[in-house]
Amino acid sequence: MTDGAAAALFRACLRLYPHAFREEEGTDMVATFSLRLSTLKRGWVRRWTFVGRECLGAVVGGGVMRLSQFLKTDLFADSARDLRHAARALARKPGVTVNAVLALGLGIGLPTLMFCFIYGALLRPLPVPDGERILHLEYANPVQGLQELDVSYHDFLDWKDRQEVFEDMAAFYRGTVNLSGGDRPERFFGAFITANTLDVLRVRPALGRGFLAGEDHPSADRVVLISDAVWRSRFDASATAVGAVIRVNGEPTTVVGIMPEGFGFPYWEDVWLPLRFDPLAMGRGTGPGLEVFGRLRSGATLELARAELQLISRELADEWPDTNRDLEAVVEGYTASYHDQDGGAPLAIMLLTALAVLLIASFNVANLLLARAVTRTREVAIRVAMGASRRRVVATLLQEAGLLALAGAAVGTLFALVGVAQINRAVLAAATYPPPFWMSFRMDAPILLFVAALTGLSAMASGLVPAIKASGTNVRGLLQDASLSGSALRISRLSRSLVLGELTVSALLLVVSGHLAQEVTRTRNADYGYPADDVLTARLGLFEGVVPDRESRLAFYRDLQVRLASRHEIASVALTTTLPGEEAPAGRFAVEGTAYAEEADVPRARMALVSPGFFEALGIPMIAGRGFRRSDDAGSLPVAIVNRSFAQRFLPDGEPLGAQIREGRLEGISPWRTVVGVVPDLNMDGALDPAGTPQGVYLPIAQSDARFMSVAVRTSGDSLALASVIRDEVSGLQGDTPIYFVRTLRDAINVGLLDMLLMGGIFVGFGVAAFLLAAVGLYGVTAFLAGQRTREVGIRMALGAEGGAVLGLVLHKGLRQVLGGLALGLLLAGAARQGLGAAGVGVAQWDLGVTAAVCLTLGLTWLAAVGVPAWRSTRVDPVVALQQE
Amino acid sequence: MKKTAADAETFVPLADLPFHILLSLGNGDSHGYAIGKEIEERTSGRLNPTTGSLYQALRRLRETGLIATVDPPKEESSGDSRRRYFALTRFGRRVMALEVERLEGLVAMARERSLAPGET
């Protein structure tokens, strides 16, 4: 860039300064700028940085100066009178006013609803005192690419001991808890927590007390805290519940406290038990994995906590290389740690979509106001001629827009209130699991603040352009030209481009929402290669207190399978620790004949225990070999079945049958198992959102042990009707064992679809709203334009033009808009698809059908919206038309 | 309008940029470019106003009567005649004196409390 060009650019930026300032200082400023530029040391980076900084400085400085000058004027002086004026003007044209209010209502309501949803789902802090100071801590192993690793009890104790950024730290693990005693056995989500958990959260039980120090030692008396809901359902909200003894996982336990209503820490739990650990009795790195949280000291920050914990985890890795090598502490906000890392992107897209709808609504209102501005240009011209300043005229028109926006905000808030109720209902209905306890959708202060911001925005967006346009008309010309046609045409050009914008946005939204809806349907009904709809599943857990040892558990599963198979309603029965399509836990499997230098080299694979006849029962064909038989039990040869991915990746010799594999690490003590069969991949890494590592191994239940089991039964009839059959047989075997998660295999898989369903639903809703708004806007503008041309049409028809030719003339003008809008919309939709893909809501294929349907719908709507007023204009009697003004 | 001592007090304490502009003009009349350059050098680049903010500040100082535009010195008038020169007004000097007094008071207080360098 030459010095001259740079000076010209700088001079251009100076134009933002008020006239007087520029007049006096401009020349000097440009001279100084040039001098500074010429004395700059060489190097284009330095030059560009300098020019950029100078220009930005001028733009910002000038803008601020203008704005403050503008605000200092008497823009809103005498505003009471102006407001009355604006209100009267609105009341004179009720049709336009109602139209505008409804459009803005929809336009403000949708983003508000969306924001309410985002805020409730993602931004609301943990509902405990100073909840935003509670941080969540876990491990990751970046070397092996492992995330979300639990923390061992010893590591937790060391963290707690060595850290200084937290007031205190506590830990927990989540599970399910069996409550019995009294009437019926029931299963709840429960958390095993350190005794100081409630202190760190600063939450007290509503009744009774929390855990005392020492109650988390294995030798302490057994105590339990229950939720408000459990208290109501099992104790009828009786005060005597505190002190009552119930059976928890088969052990007699004293209820010491009732938690306040709505409390479900750490996620959605109903029962709290102390972690009963004795660190001295446990080897380092053993015991259940924990999640850790802490309350930041005042003055400490997330960054500080990260730095300190990173340091501590590195120390621990040095001190305990066997258990801690490569482990890094991950510190996050508590609620943020439960959201997908890429969760922000789809929500940003959704909010942008909602704002696009608001944009459309504002366009519509701008158009309506523009149309009125034309009819009022004369009034404005007279006011200006009589000495009203342009600013005053702008202020009046802005106040009209402001009044409309306020009314729109009221309608929008109402709309959002209804929507929030619907979302709450939908989330509860769609979720097999309850949402986390901190998630709540309601219209409160932060949401209303958002509404206020939107109201201001839409008032500006819809009012400013018409106001400036109307007040900028040539006064003398207007007073002379009685027909107003000149300014009408100028304004109509603007409103046509607004309509183009509306068409673009609604085409974009419709195309994207159409594809998302299609994708949701496709995923919902996907064919996974195993039956999903006619299989009913249920989960059960056996407890030490009830079914004490491995032999009795195996006997229970064997008997259950036999009893269920004997029922005539059931075609076949299968038992497994992890259902097809659910993500199975992963471990290491060594293959005989392969040398591994390091533990990380041992193949990683997912593992599930299955019953005899499992694959046959679900109609899954064997690729090679056989399925498990009843004879594959504890006393016989250890066997395994691998899936196709495992065979291909780890047994590459082409003959998987007969290969020997062993569960566990390098120096494993588990027995070598002979591979007796190969089955297709059954989404062991999760059907909906594969987590990676599809390789998997199946072992017979009888050659292993498990306390939790899923039952899958197949039927030709109504599968849900079988729930009571399963329940009967389970309680027939062992009365204290409840069953839970009763649902079809399809529903079990689609639990993870909730996000996508909501997202798809929201996009469709937005698309339809945008489309309706665009249609109304299109109609309004065409009707207005056609009305403006009544005289022209009248003359043409008086001179003998056919109605059809006139119709064509009007239609022709609009055709370009609709084609342009569609083209732009499709182009943007292509870009949006990539954005969605990046956000993890991939639209697999670009569907021509959906795109064509959207084009057709928009085309037909356009024809109706433009055609009707155009056709009406040809019905005009030429004599009447010519008499018009 | 005659400015009084009371008027001058309303300008104290001075913001960073106006202070440095007045400080530069204490050396004698100067033009925008030279003022900006001196400020940048004196503060080792910490304060490096854009041309826009420099002239906005100069204008504010002029409007409040702390500085005024003056004719260029004779030896330079043959050069760039577009360049305006700025000079401290008497009122500007008074404001600056008040500011210096304020700063001296603060420095003295710091010394008393052994906060100045070399007084550990």
Structure in a nutshell:
The complex is a heterodimer of chains A (885) and B (120). With 885 residues, chain A is α+β, with helices and mostly antiparallel strands.
Can you give a write-up of this model?
The complex is a heterodimer of chains A (885) and B (120). Chain A has 885 residues and is α+β, with helices and mostly antiparallel strands. Chain A has 25 helices and 22 strands. In chain A, the strands form three sheets. In chain A, strands 3-4-9-6-8-7 form a six-stranded mixed beta barrel. Chain A has a six-stranded mixed β-barrel with strand order 14-15-20-17-19-18. In chain A, a hairpin with a 5-residue loop joins strand 3 and strand 4 (186-193). Chain A starts with a helix and ends with a helix. The model of chain A is unreliable at 478-487 (pLDDT under 50). Chain B is mainly alpha-helical and 120 residues long. Helix content of chain B is 55%, strand content 8%. Chain B has six helices and three strands; from the N terminus they run ααβααβαβα. In chain B, strands 1-3-2 form a three-stranded antiparallel sheet. Chain B is globular. Chain B starts with a helix and ends in an 8-residue tail after the last helix. At the A-B interface, helix 2 and helix 3 of A face helix 3 and helix 4 of B.
